[in-house]
Amino acid sequence: MNLIENISNFINKLFGKVCVLVLLLMVFLIVSNIFMKMFFISYHGIIEIQGWLSALLISLALGYTQLYKGHVAIQIFVDRIKPATSNLIEVIINLISLAFLILVTWQIFRYAGHQRMIGSVSETLRWLIYPYIYIVAIGFAGLTLQLLVEFLLSFIRVIKKEHAESLRA
């Protein structure tokens, strides 16, 4: 279990660092474009580039955010029930989420493969779009891997009848 957890932590922390670089690139492009417009020069396709970079930023941040529990979670009902029942509910929710994200990740990879096969390009810059879609799929794979870890941890808690905090420590 530690091996899978360590791999997930490494991958999603790496994705978090990539997100920082993507965000810095986005800021640089926007600020430099503003300064260039003072001289009546502008980057061609800046809006398209920002759109692709935004998609990369969001998708690569998914697993990192899940790693640090940054997504919205509704605990108001689960906090009022016994830990054993709460752990079982967590297993079910993690299993449903994992199954859904496996399907989503698989479909995004399929879509990227289809776009590669037909040679689809972006509207303004005429860049091939499949590399960006593959990176989005990789970001979703990072989230799926993190949810697999969380499902396994919650499943182990149910089997061992432990409280949620005791396994993470």
Broad structural category? mainly alpha
Strand element count: 0
Proportion in β-strands: under 5%
Terminal Cα span:
14 Å
Count of separate structural domains? 1
Largest sheet entry:
none
Question: Looking at the structure, what is the overall shape?
Answer: elongated
Radius of gyration: 20 Å
Quickly count the helices: 5
SSE order: HHHHH
Low-confidence stretches: none
Query: Residue share in helices?
Result: over 70%
Question: Main attributes?
Answer:
169 residues; mainly alpha
Provide structural commentary.
The longest helix has 36 residues, at 2-37. This protein has one domain (2-168). Helix 1 runs antiparallel to helix 2, helix 1 (2-37) runs antiparallel to helix 4 and helix 2 runs parallel beside helix 4 (130-160). Helices cover 77% and strands 0% of the residues. With 169 residues, the chain is mainly alpha-helical.
Write the layout of secondary structure elements.
Elements: H1 2-37, H2 46-67, H3 83-118, H4 130-160, H5 164-168
Summarize the structure.
This protein has helices spanning 2-37, 46-67, 83-118, 130-160, 164-168. The chain has 169 residues and is mainly α.
